[in-house]
Structures are given as structure tokens and as C-alpha cells.
Specification:
Blueprint (H helix, E strand, L loop, with lengths): L10 H20 L10 H10 L14 H33 L4 E3 L5 E10 L7 E10 L2
Antiparallel strand pairs: 1-2, 2-3
Length: 138
């Protein structure tokens, strides 16, 4: 959906926030130096575009790559642990709800565990019923 809004020029914002970023950007362009790597999707997309194909070569990574590897492995382990914790908590709530549709927590928050019908793509002619757990707002 397209929305048109008029925004008044804010010179203080431009000078404090935009100009330093713009100056840094142009300094990188003039030095023909890529911007620093960060965790944004924009950086992921740029790296994928820049290095979309591999050469088959092997490169020696810098010493700091050991820190990156430690961060990556730690993050993966934390995600795995968080997913297991999430699944266990969901299963406890589902078991407590049982065959009911809704469950109410002592603080008034509610969960629904409703059945919905979906087509089973491999069998297409068969419709299956799946229950989905959702936390409802108070």
C-alpha cells in the first residue's frame, strides 16, 4: 500500500545523523574500500551478490576469524537450546490444554490450541487436521 506524506526538512537531524553517514559512505567509495561487515540483511545480500560463485580455492583466514567462529558456534548452540526450550514449553502447555480449545494462565493470558484443516500436498486428495498453538493477548 502506497502512502504519501509530507515531511518538513529538519536541518539539525540532517547535520547530526545523515551527513556523518553520507561522509563515511563517500570516503569508502573514494578509497574503493567496501564498508565494514555487520549483521544486517543488506550486508548478507551484498556478500551474496559479490561472491555468489566460489572459485574452488582455499584461503587462510585471519586470526580474528577464530573469534568469529566462536561467536558463530555459540550462537548456533544458543539457538538450538532456545528451540528445545521453546518446544518443551509448548508441549507442556499443549498437554495442560489437552482436548480443550483454550487454556487460561493464572495471570489471565490465554492460549488457543485450535484445529485447522489443510490439504496434504503429497496426497492432495486428503485433507488433514492440524492443531496450532497461539498465545492470545489479554
Amino acid at each position: 500500500r502506497f502512502v504519501w506524506q509530507r515531511v518538513e526538512r529538519n536541518q539539525r537531524f540532517i547535520e547530526a545523523m545523515l551527513l556523518p553517514v553520507l561522509d563515511d559512505f563517500w570516503a569508502h567509495v573514494q578509497r574503493r574500500e567496501p564498508p565494514p561487515v555487520d549483521g544486517t540483511e543488506a550486508t548478507s545480500a551484498a556478500l551474496k551478490r559479490l561472491y555468489g560463485k566460489d572459485s574452488g580455492e582455499t584461503v587462510d583466514l585471519p586470526d580474528v576469524a577464530l573469534e568469529w567462529d566462536e561467536d558463530l558456534q555459540g550462537a548456533k548452540a544458543a539457538i538450538k537450546a532456545a528451540k528445545a526450550m521453546k518446544k518443551e514449553a509448548e508441549n507442556h502447555i499443549k498437554a495442560a490444554i489437552g482436548s480443550a480449545t483454550f487454556g487460561v494462565l493464572p495471570n489471565g493470558s490465554r492460549y488457543s490450541w485450535k484445529a485447522s484443516k489443510r490439504n496434504d500436498p503429497p496426497r492432495e486428495a486428503k485433507t488433514i487436521s492440524i492443531r496450532t498453538l497461539r498465545r492470545l493477548e489479554k
